[in-house]
Structure formats: C-alpha cells, structure tokens
C-alpha cells in the first residue's frame, strides 16, 4: 500500500507532478506557475463551485478552490516556467510528500517568532498570527528589470512633484495638476510650504502595488508614500521561507535584501542634519497598531531606536528623545504613522501619537523625516492618470511602467467618457479616509446590478471630484499550498505585489530586490491583510552575481556597537517599572487571597484578631468592596465577596485586574520581552479570567466555590512564578531591568510593611493562628520552622521578617536592595549611594533589641514606626523616580550629547 500524499504519482519528478496536478489559473488570468494566460475557453479539472468574476487589484475575490479530478489532467497544459520547474525539482527526495511537514514547520516558526498582524487591534483584542503561504512568488530577471526601471523612474517623478507642490507650484499654475487634487486634499499640508528637506529629498521610502495582467506585463495599481508597510514583514517572510526551501533558494540565485537596507541607512545618515554619527529613531503609533510587530522588528534589524510620540519632545526647534539619562538629540526619524497625527499643535489637535512642535523642527531644518510630511495626496488613485504628463514635464521621460487607466471624475470630459464604462471598471474614493469628503469602499462595476450602476452614476455626476474610476484588470494567480481539506493541495490565488524604492543618498534611489506579495483571501473580496488575506515571500532571480551583503558586521567597531545599544526611553522605562509593580501586586493579591480562603475554610475560625487582620488587608488591597462586612460579622458574606471579586477586571486590586495591568504594561514594551515571557503573561490572564468566568457561570456554592477559586489562584500563582523567573533570570541587567526590579521591590516593601503594621496594630501577631498567617503571607513558613522550631514570639518574627538580610521577603533585604539599585540606576559606582537612596531607611541602624522593646499595652512603638516609615518611603521614592526618570520635570532637563 502506498501511503504517500499523491499515491503512485509521487514517483514522478516533482516538477512533472506539479505540472500535472496543479490546476491552471482561472480563465482570463495570467498563470504565474506556467508563465502564460489561461484562455477564456480553457478546460479545467472540474468546474468552480460557484461563478466567480475575476478579481480587480485591491478589490479581489479569491477564486474557488478546484477539486482534484480523478484520472490524468488534460494533456494540453503548458509546461512550468524554468524557475518553478527548478523549485519543485529541488524539493529533495521526499518531494511533495514533505510539503505538509514543511507547512506545519512554517506555522510553528511564525508562532514561535511571535509574528503578528493585529487586525483592527484594540487593547483587549487577541493578536492574529501573521499569515504566510508556503510557496514564494517567482520573479524572473527579465520581469524584474522592467519593474526596477519603472519603479525607480516613478519615485523620481513623485519626489519632484512634492518639491514643486511645496515650492514654486508651477505644476498647479500650468494646469498639469488640478488644484482640487492637491490643495483640496486633506493630506496637503500648508504648513510644509517653503520647506527645504535635507538633501532636497522628500521621499525616502515609497511602496508601489503592482499587478500582472493577462499579457504578462506589470501594471501599477496604487502607490504608498506616507508610511508604507511591509519592509519588516517581507524580511520575516524571507527568513521563514528560505529556511523551508534552502536548496531551492540557493539554486535559483535569489537576490538578497540586506544590501538595500544597508544602503538606505547609509543614505539617511549621510543627509541627516548635524550629528556624527546621527541618531535615527523609528516612530511607531504603539503596540495596538496592526503592524506593530513590523515596527519593532524593523527597528531591531536596522539598529535604530523604536520610539512613540510621547518619547520625544521638541526644545528650541530641535527634536529630543527622553531617556533615563536626560534628553538626547534625534537627527533622523523614520515615521510609521500617517501625517495628520504627527503634530497636534499644527495638524490633528486630538492626536496623542505625535510630537508637539515637530513640524517647526522640520521647518528649521534640524531633523530629517522619512518620508517628509505632506505626501498623502500622492496616494490618491486619481493622481495616477496625471503622472505620464508630469513625467514628461519634470524629467523629460516616458513612464516605462504603466499604471492602470484611471479617470478622475472631477474633470467633466473624463467623467463623461467613463460613465458608459462603469460596468467594466472599479469605482474608488478620490480622498480615501477623509472626514471632509465623501468616502466609501471601492466597488467593482461588474458586480453591480443595472439599478446599482445607475445609482453610482448619479453619485458621480453630483460629486465627481470625490470619485475616481479605474479600469478592470484580472490579477495574475500564483500557486499556493492549501490545506483547507485533506492533506493539502496546490491552488491558484490572486496576487498583488508591493515593491519598495528606498533612497540611498540625496536624490538617489534603489529598488529592494524583493517585495511583499499579498494573496486574496478564500472568502474575501479584497487582497488585504486586514480582511483575512495572506502573504508570500518574493524571490527575485538574477542571471548575475548574488549580492551576499549582510548587516552582521564581521568586525564590529565601538561606534557600531554603541549604535546598536539603543537608549532606554522614558516611556519604556516607565512601563518596565509598572510591569514590575503590577507583577508583584498580582503575586501579593494571589498570595493574600489564597491565604484568606484557606483560613476561612479551615477549622480555626474563632480568632477575631486574625479575621480582622484578613479583612483589613483585603480592603486595603481591594480584594473586596468597602461595603462588605468583615469575617467577624459575616464570614460567609466576606468569603463569597472575595471569590466573586477575583476575576473583576474593572476593580483595582483584584487578581484579574492586576493580571490585566501586567499584560497591558508588557504590551507597551513587547519588543523587550522574549516570546516565552510574553506568552506566559497573555496565557496567565486569559486562563485565570476563563476559569473565574466558568466558576461564576456555574454558580458554585460553599466548599465547591472555594475549591474552584483556590484552583484558579493556584494556576495564577504558578504562572506568576514563571513570569518572575523570566524577569529575574532571562533579562539583560540594563537600566530598564533595574527599573522593573525597583518597581517590584517598591511594591513589596509597601505591601509587607502595611501587612506587618496591621498585624501588630490589631494584635493578630499575638495569637498562634495570626502569627502563622503573617509568616505564611511572607512565604517564609518553611524557613521559620526550620530555624526557630516551635517558638512564636515577636523576636523570632522580627529576626526573620524584618532584619534577615538573606531573606528576599524581609524588610531589610528589600530596603537594602532598593537602595543599591536606585544608586546603580543613577550611575553611581558600586557601593556608593545617591540622595534618593538615602530616602529609604538604613537597615544597618536597625537592631533587634531596640525594635523589640515593648511599650504600654504590649505595643512595640519602634517597630510600628519602622513599618510606617518603610511604607511611606516606598511611595515617596516611587513618586521621585517618576519625576526624575519618566516626566523629566526636575533637574533632569538636560541634554546628553551634542
């Protein structure tokens, strides 16, 4: 019996097998696998499941997956292209039978690397794994030569259009560009008029969406100039797919990518304003942006600082980064957010993503921004129809890479010419995403009824300028590996290619030899990652030498090492500080809740002091609402309230709330955490909330409810222990980690001090049950009994929980550690303390005799005073750290460097 995926056919050569089993592209579409268009009357292995019109550029519908026909396929199919034939022949001895394993390996690699695309992400939404197909898109040397020359030419034209529009505006005066498409576009920034960018270069990164028509030629569908996405994801795609097919990757002479990224960074450094070496940062909207993974990945790869808007500030028309060491000049900014959010002073006033005063720093020539603000109007589809004339006027050349025929309906002649053709075209908004213009989702005329076409024609006549019509183009289809049924099969999918032009110097660009291929989703109508599409790696072949440049320098210099040692921003530092505090707070809440439920369900429930101590700590840590009576009045009500509040994510102090805060703080510094650490944090929150929700839904009562709650708390405790291990054993001891550690110890010092103070004030320490509970809360029961046997007096407690410098949960250890790490954070030499360190009590002055001196009514005034001073000092130091390192409002307002 043959158990192979394709039966006896697997004995054939892989390329021949692929040719026989891979269905052709749908009729009228170019077949990337075979290099020819499928005739409209071509036979298929089986009819489509339902009629499906051919897709149109960014409004595509995926073709239905054909069923594998029994018997041999039609013998008239053209052979595979040389590239695809070589690809399949290099699969190795296992051939097609190994493809399911490679698909599983690819999915695991994407998951393990934490590659995500947050579709319409929000603070509480799940992260969607990046979707990557197993097969790459092959681009022959001849096709790439056409693309490369055409894209280079187009970026030159677009750059000169920007220079004119924000300069002499001759194009508008001569009528080569309609004023409505420029001054009437919300992306035109009047504040940028008259600006001279560094190197006289406006565009440093430009993306072009290309589609291959049935004639085999490439056509421009759209262009992206504000903040084109894809440069990071295509790197991850290349890394993942080249690992799955290493032999084919080498055999096909695929061009590498590193040289272009290196040239881009060198180009930016050359034309940056003063700074040697210049400090370049990548500006991201933050972790809730759908492409945040790419921002963090790209920043690490390029060796630049990843920053958010509130990491930056403008002083004296210069841009600075707020770091733990003060203000550090920023000379270049790679922006990954749209222009309107860049400066709330001059653009969108409610933006919290930008930097107040940034446009003034740009106008003063003190910072390079890639791309310069003001290019949004270039993204209008209407502009494509004017570029041929603009190219002849600006650079004296004809465009080598054509765009789809496009009509802007703001011109009466164009509108009248295209209205009869609406049924064969796509209708797009001229001002995409504008709040001040009519905007809508693109529609395909062939999918509209006669009545709907008439309605659209009426809208176009009434508001012609808001509508752009683009001709129809059936997208080419590439082979993909589909596993929607059975072990897997090859299926054609419509593909849109995004390529990038990057500047490598003043008025100089090169095209990245690769790109991001986007595939139409199986049940979507547009080839968009936001709507369920997927991606593919792009292999550009060459007949010549493969450039094997690497960004990994064989001989690093001190300067290059310093460039890759990114400073710790104040925002990242603050989030690390609160990550530490919330992790410790969650541990304290879990430990206190477990202890309370254990004691309430135990045999000894007669100690009023113990119940009073538990009630006070539960109130102080918000484990129960203020109106809930204590255990001395109604033990059952107190117990039920505690169980009910465990999963409340809206009440500060509950276990669920603290776990959510841990996850939110970690999300803000996601780039600093390992994938395992991040997964532990996400899993801890989701599992605890799931268990508590199930418990609430089951309406558990009595011992069952307590047992279920204790199991949930035990799971959370184990998860928090794993987080603590990751934080203490797997993170680099830099300033960010020191702040995380300081945050944890500040929280621990305040919690333990208040717990001890309450125990002595209420008198729980003088009863056996209360004494044992206080030792257990400090997680020191085993050590206590091993050291002191059956003694239970104040002296033994003070010795272990207050004075023991080897116990990480004693006040002395926590205080001494805090003093040292605060000094180290300030840059002091080992053993030297700073003024802030001295704000904490000095454990060296504490003595057992003095602290254990009993006063009237069996009180210990020196001990209680120490508890109160430790708690007050913890909060005072927390405020001082916030002022000194996060808000930079005190003496820290100094700049570092030149």
Tell me the number of helical segments per DSSP (H or I, 4 or more residues long).
Answer: 28
Largest sheet: 7 strands, antiparallel
The coarse silhouette is: elongated
Count every beta strand, where a strand is a DSSP E run of 2 or more residues.
Answer: 22
First CA to last CA: what distance? Answer: 75 Å
Q: Approximately what portion of the residues adopt beta-strand conformation?
A: 5-15%
Taking pLDDT < 50 over at least 5 consecutive residues as the criterion, the unreliable ranges are 1-11, 42-69, 120-124, 890-898
**Radius of gyration, whole Å:** 33 Å
Average pLDDT reading: 85
- Give the structural class: alpha+beta
Helical content, roughly?
40-55%
Pfam family, one: CP_ATPgrasp_2
Protein name: Circularly permuted type 2 ATP-grasp protein
Explain how this protein is built.
Residues 136-520 form the Circularly permuted ATP-grasp type domain. Pfam families: Alpha-E, CP_ATPgrasp_2. This is Circularly permuted type 2 ATP-grasp protein. Residues 30-84 are annotated as: Disordered. By secondary structure, the protein is of the alpha+beta class. The chain contains 28 helices and 22 strands. Helix 16 runs antiparallel to helix 18 (635-645), helix 17 runs antiparallel to helix 22 and helix 22 runs antiparallel to helix 28. The longest helix has 31 residues, at 570-600.
